[in-house]
Amino acid sequence: MTALGALLQGAVPFAVRLHREFRGVTVREGMLIHGPSGWGEFSPFEDYDDDAAGRWLGGAIEAAFGVWPTARLAVINVNAIIPAVAPDVATELAEQAAVRDGCMTIKVKITGDDAADEARVSAVREAMDRALGHGVGLIRIDANACWSVQQAISSLSRLSAYGLEYVEQPVLSNEDLRKVRAAVDVPIAVDESIRSDRGNNPKAFAELSEIADVAIIKPYPVGGVNRAIQVAELVKLPVVVSSSMDTSVGICASLALASALGVQRACGLGTGALLATDVVSKALVPAGGVMAVQKLAPDQALLAEAGQLLAPERVQFWQERITRAWHAGAADAWEKVITSSA
Asked: pTM of the prediction?
């Protein structure tokens, strides 16, 4: 059997539902990959090209066939996430995050609608102050590069009144990030700048230390846990690890990365709370503001149910996509490893 054949033999399609729309979707699709080391997740978003999907597949293969680095921490501090929702919903979600889940840090999504964004951030601040005490909770905002330079400067001048720990990716280009950082007092974190077309260019990663204060690193989009550690060394910035709206099985890779790096800041791993269904019986969500470092296998009955949510044409789509991703880059790094274990 070829390496690709062995990979496809252990690949199981899934779809899980979200409580509400997030990143433009209400259903999260992908494939879980089984190998001698356990389970990995291949679920690149639709707008990722084959090269980017190939890096994601490398991370999934690493989880299933490779070895993660030694853990340095047993538990990881976690932030909650507030999607682009109305203020009343943001209030409810923030109170749940602070009281039920014990999260002291919340990340709020920004859309570029100035009035709606400020109302959402204000609602979260008020809810956190009631639950935790005035100014105790930390708020991060994530703009996903939706702003122009001038809108970023104007918006951050207003939103800074709510006590922001940092703003994630206010604008996209390095030049624009430099302009925004010079004009505002809010620290800048980069996410898309790390996972978009930087490949193995150390200089490109190192330049980020000149235009940002925090690096958001997600293991699957950059090629896996071990590759993410290399990226962290190259960017030379404080790191916050984030997941990619994964299932609980997929989140384990982010936990492994945060543990290996010894990250103390709250990491963006609370995305399990966004899922209405999952592939494990007890979803990975924060408890007391932390999550335990672990490696999970899916519940086979729940995985079968998750597979039934996919129409046959979507199953074919994912089989074709994993094949393209394999040829786009994952084969070079992993063919011998898979072949030797098949």
From this structure: 0.96
